[in-house]
Amino acid sequence: MKNFTVIIITIISLGCLIFFSTSATADESIVTLDSLIQSQDVVLSEDALAEGTPAELVSQPSAITGKGVLKQKIGLLISQLAQWRLRPIDGLEILPRDLIPRWGLIAGKGPLIVNEEFTNNLNGWTASNAYAGATSFGSIVPDPVSKDNAFAVAHTGLWDAASQGFIEQSFKVNTPKEMTFSVLYNFVTTEGGVTYFNDNAIISISHEDGTVTYGLFESTNSSTFIPVTGLPSNIINGGRGQNGNQTGWVQRSSDPILFDRGNYKVRIEVNDVYDEYVDSAILVDMVGLE
Length: 290
Hints:
The protein is α+β, with helices and mostly antiparallel strands. 15% of the residues lie in helices and 32% in strands. The strands form four sheets. Strands 4, 5, 8, 11, 12, 13 and 16 form a seven-stranded antiparallel sheet that branches. The chain has a five-stranded antiparallel sheet with strand order 3-6-15-9-10, with no helix packed on it.
């Protein structure tokens, strides 16, 4: 009888061992970076995300060569999650930061505004009377802070060819969050001298319900200018002389803005006012939202 009991206990023990081993294997097979990100159990440091550091899941914590940040929610299977960490690929290190805001960018999500430096022409943007990848605008060259020495140009067309130029991009906010908007721009105009000829440039962010979340305004009558010569004759005022005024490169960064859930649009435009024959343009670079 005693031997029989020992056999039964041994069989039960082996069964439990097989069950838990199989369960662990099955569970591990379905734990992916995407699933953990979706459940907000894994968060990368903002520094690493900004640098585009790649990461992968590994099942052996002892094999980690870098550092990672793992946040676990109470009530989840801690014993299972404890077997996973984030490891940098190719020796790139993920820098940890405590108390990372839950609204911050997370692995697999990229910036809300794509092609923000116009390195890839106008991909991701909708445009009219505009182009990108410019390395000069007549005598005007990129600002020294530009990361790729290229920018976009929106203009009002040569003489009366058009009265407005713009570039715009839509993005979606899934969770209310505070973010800061930044932009580098230069408003250029050949207008001036008469008050009602007041060409302007507008940079704005608006919600789908029409609410303007952020607005920036430059105009012929209200802005501070410096003279500029050698403007491109194929874009503004061809044959009438290529002298005008520019604000120079201006870098602006907003205070933190609270974005509610919904669809938004960032728009950068330049407008002829009163006449369509004396032209203006806005040069823009490094549009960011984070």
